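Lab meeting notes turned into a lecture example. A postdoc, R.K., suggested we walk through two folding results consecutively so the class can see how the record format repeats. The first protein's sequence and structure tokens come next.
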Amino acid sequence: MRDESETVLPADSTPGVSRSLARFVERTGWSDVPAAVQHEAVRALVNYFAAALAGCASPVIERAATVFASFRASEAAGLIGRRERTDVLNAAALNAMSANVHDFDDTHLPTVIHPSAPVAAALFALAESTPMSGEQLLLALVLGVECTCRIGLAVSPGHYRRGWHISSTCGVFGAAAAAGKALRLDEGQLVWAFGQASAQAAGVLETLGTMAKSLGFGQAARGGVLSALLAAQDFSGPPEPLAGNYGFLRVSSDHVDPAAAHDTLGREWALLSTGYKPYPCGIVLHAAIDACLQLRRDAAGAAWTSAAIERIELTGHPLLRERADRPRPASSSEAQVSAQHALAVALARGSAGLADFTAESIADPELQALRERVVLIDDPAFAIEAAHVAVRLRDGRSVACRVQTPRGAPARPLSDAELEAKLRALAVYGASGIAVQPLLDALWGLPRAPDAAAIMRAACAPAAAASALR
């Protein structure tokens, strides 16, 4: 072990950010986490497994799993909803990708980061070969999400505006912190893990609407595990990988707030600002979908067809148009980030579920006609999560609805029962064949479980689960 007294920060760095986060991760115990945050950690995992079970057999995962299998080093870890087993690094990547592929994961609203997929995937990949209790895994999850979102706050909003995919770039640090906590790294080793993560922080918004978007999540989980494993072997890194003159914060954003990364640690918790999606699409579209569904309810059975609708105006923060102006989506991945498609399905069908973002829905002539009538209007005064929808009907009437806070946001949270229902529905959609109730029982009982890996035995498809028990 190196002599900590010999660590010297560069004179031109902003000291303390990396070490403050590392110290917080090392020293925080489960009893330091408020009860509300402890419960939210379990809710985050219910949502994570729901999203992963929906995506476990998607074409994205099938193709990635085929390639990854060529480089499998062992069968130490299971894959959610699948029968085969693989090594820890590949499992971390594929399980994170599964949880993100349908855009049904969670969202930290202040940063628009989807934090749980990389962090949870990293931890469960380790859990089958690194003994940890349910409490230990949940604590590592809380701390990993905290680091992800704190670093995101420090580089926001400039990082995202420059085109970085913030969930991937910041997710690798959270996965490293979580894996490091699970591996019981000390403060100095955790700083090194952040250093290894900084060498792997990548992902750009140009990938949205393509399979490559989910690969960024997979690489974040994989890179986080690798970072922690390297640091455990005293694989050294820079003393200030986050706030150094050429550290992640300064390199990745023009306007940096280093204090946001570590001020109020232990007093404010990122999980309490994180919501769970009721719709499988970009979070900037959720308020607009809510508005469309409310308009349908208010109309009490009136027809919402292309024959009845002349124009649909969607007003929102400029980020909505920048990220979701796709009037003619060519794939389900593009439909998930298409404002035009989201409004069309919500108005025409009164729903916005996984079946509404498929290739069949994209090709629906009725939806194609409605998509062409959607007009996007920027208003910087809108919050990112807010939207206003105005519909002009051919009979001369106009109706409108404004939603400030979408369903699923922390101010309008999905209940525990709604999250359970989400997991049940998405497990059916993914057709993995797992028994849902034992998985739910294991998740809600995780704080008291002696073996966190029991979750994976319940979440893997039957053949893999049987293999794990032999």
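The second example is placed directly after the first for contrast:
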Amino acid sequence: MLIICFLLLISYLILPVIFITGWNKVPNFHTEDFLQPDIKISVIIPLHNEEKNVKTLIQQLIKQTHQPFEIILIDDHSTDSTYNKLLELTTGEPVFKVLSSLEKGKKSALKQAVYEATGAFIITTDADVELPSEWIQNFAAFYSETKSDLIIGSVEMKEGTTFFDAMQRIEFVSLVASGAGACGAGMPVLCNGANLGFTKKAWLESQEHLRFDIPSGDDIFLLSSVKKRGGKISFLKSRNALVKTFPATDIRHFIRQRQRWGGKSTAYTDFHLIYTALSILLISITEIYLLICSFFSVHYLIAFLTIFLVKYVFDASLIQTVSHFFEIKKPWIQSFYLSTIYPFYIVIVALKIIIKPGRVKTGW
């Protein structure tokens, strides 16, 4: 059994090595190195009960430096005043189109908005993020330079005041860094619809693979489809194109969010994504198994400490590599705290998905 545990460790350690190598291959992008491209961009933002964020969102969009662009705000059956606020705040602003989704669900709202979009290149985000003023400009310049079918943007979690907030932030950094590194290594596996760009043509060619029968996962299914067809996928490494989101308010919300993210995992067919997810789950199970067994045998205790420390060094090395870009302080200390918690949370989320898969019913 110990031999199997160490083989699982080796299988896992391949991942951070690939991610670090891939991250270092992706150059930093600076828009000042390129002429302002004359490309029309369509920005699509689905909203559901976002009345508290609408005003700030529209203010951020009005301040965007790139021209020309259109903003499609599509309300997905909100039960609050989101739709009315959108109409009120965009009056007299010709770049905005306010739509009401015909069908329920985020995926259906996105589909309707994509059909409505007049730009050849589309960017998606969420209503509750912070957007830099050069956000659209960076995507436009990067697309003009690379002609990518799909562009993965960075998402960063805002700093909070609690230990729980700090752990969410470092865990989120590890996810985004892994996705960026995998993309740089030529095996993209992760992206986030809160900061994603793609050509309208690529989306239309992918729509039969987007699994509209599953409420969420529009971003990952699009990535997998473009990848399968041999489309060009790039990571935009620029803090001027980075959007910031907020941490979950409590553990229950956090677990539900991760359960929703992982709830469609059985529908994935991409080998690299399956290998990544299985490796993370199996090494987490291994750590918990060895920890339990270590109370009964010193050999298992030694095995647990060895696997924990080796895995920690590799994981922390990834965080250290990206710490400057994501402005992470004390990456080795934060990584150590995360390493002690991560296996338990991964297994808990996996068990909740297996035991109660029907609880994940919405894309929001």
